[in-house]
Amino acid sequence: MTLDPVLAASVLRRGADALSGYALTAIEQERLIAVVHQRGMSVNCTLARANRFAPIADAFPLTCSLLKPWLRPLLDELWSVHRPDNYQFAGEVPAFSWFLQQKLSQGKVTHPYAEEIFRYECAAWALIQTLQSSAARPTPERALDKSLTVRFTHDPHMLVPALERDETPPPDLPAGDYLVRLTLRGDVLDVETV
Questions:
Q1: pLDDT band, very low/low/confident/very high, at 137 (cuts 50, 70, 90)
Q2: How many domains does the chain have?
């Protein structure tokens, strides 16, 4: 219930009726009802959400900033279908990435800058993840630069800095064709317009 605040709130309001979909004994139901009535339960739910959100915010800070008004319902929907597979929440980034890509491709996330910012951060995240895999390789292979190019349809010089400051970018940026190259040199990520 800590990972499902909706269920916890339902049990708090409705008691055993909210647990009718589970094969629980009367003692198990009583224990769960007692758990949701404990003073720290809402704090536990908040901490669980924060722990699940932290890796997503680390991987996609600009996307989270851009989608801030819609982020909570998006996360609620994601977390209603995706359960963590370990206590370190290691699967949250790929789950969020897959989920948001589905929403973008279905036209359910329609912010005009969402797709390009998300694509940019996916590329940056992919390059950064190569640091972990290359740490085990011999030094000559690790020394190679790795790069990816991302296409923007709005000026990244106006879009990215606003989001880095956690500001809403201007809604009327002119459309264009911009290429940004992300290059991982050692453990430094360089970004340049092509």
A1: low
A2: 2
Question: What are the phi and psi torsion angles at 73 (to 5°)?
Answer: -65, -35
Whether 4 and 51 map to the same domain: the answer is: no
With tokens 């979909």, the residue in question is 21
Domain that holds residue 180: 39-193
Same domain, 62 and 97: yes
One domain for residues 1 and 87: no
Distance of CA 36 to the CA centre of its chain: 27
Length of the chain: 194
* Rounded alpha-carbon distances, angstroms, from residue 176 to 22, 117, 138: 54, 15, 42
Strands of the chain, DSSP E: 146-154, 175-185, 188-193
Contact in structure between 114 and 153 (CB atoms under 8 Å): no
* Model confidence band, residue 148 (pLDDT cutoffs 50, 70, 90): very high
What are 42-77's pLDDT values in tens digits?
A: 899 899 899 999 999 999 999 999 999 999 999 999
The C-alpha atoms of residue 164 and residue 14 are separated, in whole angstroms, by 43
| Residue 193: C-alpha distances to residues 10, 43, 152, 180 (Å) | 51, 44, 10, 4
